[in-house]
Design brief:
single chain, about 210 residues, alpha+beta, eight-stranded antiparallel beta sheet, two-stranded antiparallel ribbon, 10 strands
Amino acid sequence: MKNSKMKICTLQLLLIALALSTSCGYPDHTPSDCGVFAAQETSPYILPYEVGRSFEVTKTTSHGGTQYYSVDFGMPTGTPIVASQSGQVVNVEMRFLDGDTIPDHFNLIWIQHEDGTVARYFHLSHQSALVNSGDVVSQGQVIALSDNTGHSTGPHLHFDVVQCLTGLTPADINTLPCGQSLPLSFKNTVKHTCGLVAGKHYPALAH
Protein backbone atom coordinates (compact mmCIF):
# COMPACT_ATOMS: atom_id res chain seq x y z
CA MET A 1 0.00 0.00 0.00
CA LYS A 2 2.84 2.37 0.93
CA ASN A 3 4.60 1.60 -2.37
CA SER A 4 1.44 2.45 -4.32
CA LYS A 5 1.08 5.79 -2.51
CA MET A 6 4.75 6.58 -3.17
CA LYS A 7 4.33 5.82 -6.88
CA ILE A 8 1.23 8.07 -7.06
CA CYS A 9 3.07 10.90 -5.29
CA THR A 10 6.06 10.52 -7.61
CA LEU A 11 3.79 10.64 -10.65
CA GLN A 12 2.04 13.74 -9.32
CA LEU A 13 5.36 15.50 -8.77
CA LEU A 14 6.47 14.65 -12.30
CA LEU A 15 3.23 16.02 -13.72
CA ILE A 16 3.61 19.24 -11.70
CA ALA A 17 7.18 19.68 -12.93
CA LEU A 18 6.05 19.14 -16.52
CA ALA A 19 3.25 21.66 -16.13
CA LEU A 20 5.62 24.24 -14.66
CA SER A 21 8.17 23.82 -17.44
CA THR A 22 5.47 24.22 -20.07
CA SER A 23 3.78 27.20 -18.46
CA CYS A 24 7.10 29.05 -18.17
CA GLY A 25 7.43 28.94 -21.93
CA TYR A 26 10.64 26.89 -22.11
CA PRO A 27 9.75 23.61 -23.82
CA ASP A 28 13.39 23.13 -24.85
CA HIS A 29 15.32 20.13 -23.64
CA THR A 30 19.01 19.45 -23.13
CA PRO A 31 20.49 17.87 -26.26
CA SER A 32 21.25 14.18 -25.82
CA ASP A 33 24.44 14.52 -27.87
CA CYS A 34 26.46 16.84 -25.61
CA GLY A 35 29.68 15.42 -27.01
CA VAL A 36 29.19 17.34 -30.27
CA PHE A 37 29.65 20.72 -28.53
CA ALA A 38 33.15 22.16 -28.66
CA ALA A 39 34.87 22.98 -25.39
CA GLN A 40 34.30 26.62 -24.48
CA GLU A 41 38.01 27.28 -24.22
CA THR A 42 38.61 26.31 -27.84
CA SER A 43 35.39 27.67 -29.34
CA PRO A 44 35.89 30.26 -32.10
CA TYR A 45 32.58 31.99 -31.21
CA ILE A 46 31.64 34.81 -28.86
CA LEU A 47 28.13 35.86 -27.91
CA PRO A 48 26.59 38.06 -30.63
CA TYR A 49 26.25 41.13 -28.41
CA GLU A 50 28.59 43.59 -26.76
CA VAL A 51 30.80 42.84 -23.76
CA GLY A 52 29.08 43.94 -20.57
CA ARG A 53 25.57 43.11 -21.82
CA SER A 54 23.56 40.10 -20.63
CA PHE A 55 20.47 38.62 -22.27
CA GLU A 56 18.15 35.69 -21.70
CA VAL A 57 18.08 32.72 -24.04
CA THR A 58 14.41 32.25 -24.87
CA LYS A 59 14.51 29.30 -27.26
CA THR A 60 16.98 26.63 -28.35
CA THR A 61 16.33 23.01 -29.33
CA SER A 62 12.57 23.44 -29.72
CA HIS A 63 13.30 25.14 -33.05
CA GLY A 64 13.65 21.55 -34.27
CA GLY A 65 14.66 20.25 -37.69
CA THR A 66 17.57 21.98 -39.37
CA GLN A 67 17.35 24.78 -36.78
CA TYR A 68 17.80 22.42 -33.81
CA TYR A 69 20.96 24.21 -32.64
CA SER A 70 19.70 27.75 -33.32
CA VAL A 71 19.54 30.14 -30.36
CA ASP A 72 17.08 32.97 -29.66
CA PHE A 73 18.24 35.81 -27.42
CA GLY A 74 15.49 38.03 -26.03
CA MET A 75 16.61 41.66 -26.27
CA PRO A 76 15.11 45.11 -26.75
CA THR A 77 14.79 46.65 -30.20
CA GLY A 78 17.91 48.61 -31.05
CA THR A 79 20.41 46.38 -29.25
CA PRO A 80 23.80 46.39 -31.03
CA ILE A 81 24.62 43.02 -32.59
CA VAL A 82 28.25 41.97 -33.04
CA ALA A 83 29.96 39.45 -35.28
CA SER A 84 30.35 36.20 -33.36
CA GLN A 85 33.35 35.29 -35.49
CA SER A 86 35.34 37.15 -38.13
CA GLY A 87 34.52 36.57 -41.78
CA GLN A 88 33.06 38.03 -44.96
CA VAL A 89 29.52 39.38 -45.27
CA VAL A 90 27.65 37.32 -47.87
CA ASN A 91 24.03 38.42 -47.43
CA VAL A 92 22.35 41.61 -46.20
CA GLU A 93 18.59 42.25 -46.17
CA MET A 94 17.36 45.45 -44.56
CA ARG A 95 14.26 46.64 -46.47
CA PHE A 96 11.53 45.53 -44.03
CA LEU A 97 10.11 48.01 -41.53
CA ASP A 98 10.53 47.48 -37.79
CA GLY A 99 7.71 45.41 -36.33
CA ASP A 100 6.81 43.83 -39.71
CA THR A 101 6.17 40.26 -38.58
CA ILE A 102 5.08 38.76 -41.90
CA PRO A 103 6.96 35.40 -41.85
CA ASP A 104 9.37 36.00 -44.74
CA HIS A 105 9.96 39.68 -43.96
CA PHE A 106 13.05 39.33 -41.79
CA ASN A 107 16.01 41.68 -41.97
CA LEU A 108 19.22 39.74 -41.70
CA ILE A 109 22.99 39.59 -42.08
CA TRP A 110 24.99 36.48 -42.92
CA ILE A 111 28.75 36.18 -42.45
CA GLN A 112 30.81 33.35 -43.93
CA HIS A 113 33.83 32.21 -41.95
CA GLU A 114 37.19 30.94 -43.15
CA ASP A 115 36.09 27.30 -42.69
CA GLY A 116 33.03 27.81 -44.94
CA THR A 117 30.44 27.90 -42.17
CA VAL A 118 27.97 30.78 -42.13
CA ALA A 119 26.71 32.73 -39.10
CA ARG A 120 23.19 34.07 -39.59
CA TYR A 121 21.66 36.96 -37.68
CA PHE A 122 17.86 37.33 -38.10
CA HIS A 123 15.07 39.80 -37.09
CA LEU A 124 17.28 42.89 -37.37
CA SER A 125 16.12 46.51 -37.43
CA HIS A 126 15.19 48.30 -40.66
CA GLN A 127 18.23 49.80 -42.44
CA SER A 128 20.42 49.27 -39.36
CA ALA A 129 23.23 47.40 -41.15
CA LEU A 130 26.68 48.85 -40.55
CA VAL A 131 28.24 46.49 -43.10
CA ASN A 132 27.66 45.62 -46.75
CA SER A 133 27.90 42.41 -48.76
CA GLY A 134 31.55 41.71 -49.48
CA ASP A 135 32.87 43.49 -46.37
CA VAL A 136 35.35 41.66 -44.17
CA VAL A 137 34.40 41.99 -40.51
CA SER A 138 36.26 41.32 -37.28
CA GLN A 139 35.01 39.30 -34.34
CA GLY A 140 33.15 41.61 -31.95
CA GLN A 141 32.51 44.29 -34.58
CA VAL A 142 29.02 45.85 -34.39
CA ILE A 143 27.17 44.88 -37.58
CA ALA A 144 23.54 45.96 -36.99
CA LEU A 145 20.75 46.52 -34.45
CA SER A 146 18.16 44.01 -33.26
CA ASP A 147 14.41 44.21 -33.79
CA ASN A 148 11.33 42.07 -34.35
CA THR A 149 11.08 41.61 -38.14
CA GLY A 150 9.87 38.47 -39.86
CA HIS A 151 8.41 35.36 -38.21
CA SER A 152 8.65 36.67 -34.65
CA THR A 153 6.45 37.13 -31.58
CA GLY A 154 8.64 39.69 -29.82
CA PRO A 155 11.96 41.54 -30.09
CA HIS A 156 14.86 39.10 -30.18
CA LEU A 157 17.87 37.92 -32.14
CA HIS A 158 17.71 34.53 -33.84
CA PHE A 159 21.29 33.32 -34.26
CA ASP A 160 22.69 30.20 -35.81
CA VAL A 161 25.71 28.89 -37.67
CA VAL A 162 25.11 26.56 -40.61
CA GLN A 163 27.45 24.22 -42.48
CA CYS A 164 27.77 26.27 -45.66
CA LEU A 165 26.10 28.98 -47.72
CA THR A 166 22.51 28.16 -48.69
CA GLY A 167 20.39 29.89 -51.32
CA LEU A 168 19.51 33.42 -50.28
CA THR A 169 15.72 33.30 -50.65
CA PRO A 170 13.49 32.48 -47.63
CA ALA A 171 12.49 29.20 -49.29
CA ASP A 172 16.13 28.07 -49.44
CA ILE A 173 17.60 29.04 -46.10
CA ASN A 174 17.00 25.66 -44.43
CA THR A 175 17.83 23.50 -47.44
CA LEU A 176 20.12 20.57 -46.66
CA PRO A 177 22.97 19.94 -46.42
CA CYS A 178 24.08 23.58 -46.03
CA GLY A 179 21.09 24.67 -43.96
CA GLN A 180 21.84 22.34 -41.06
CA SER A 181 22.59 24.36 -37.92
CA LEU A 182 25.67 23.44 -35.92
CA PRO A 183 26.11 22.97 -32.15
CA LEU A 184 27.65 26.08 -30.59
CA SER A 185 29.67 26.96 -27.51
CA PHE A 186 30.63 30.55 -26.68
CA LYS A 187 34.01 31.28 -25.14
CA ASN A 188 33.13 34.60 -23.51
CA THR A 189 30.38 33.70 -21.07
CA VAL A 190 29.62 31.53 -18.05
CA LYS A 191 30.42 27.84 -18.17
CA HIS A 192 28.22 25.64 -20.33
CA THR A 193 29.02 22.16 -21.61
CA CYS A 194 25.94 21.25 -23.65
CA GLY A 195 24.88 24.44 -25.39
CA LEU A 196 23.07 27.42 -23.93
CA VAL A 197 19.94 26.75 -21.87
CA ALA A 198 16.58 28.47 -22.38
CA GLY A 199 15.51 30.55 -19.40
CA LYS A 200 19.05 31.51 -18.38
CA HIS A 201 20.84 34.83 -18.83
CA TYR A 202 24.30 34.83 -20.40
CA PRO A 203 26.66 37.78 -19.82
CA ALA A 204 29.15 38.66 -22.54
CA LEU A 205 32.50 38.74 -20.78
CA ALA A 206 35.82 40.23 -21.87
CA HIS A 207 37.84 37.68 -23.83
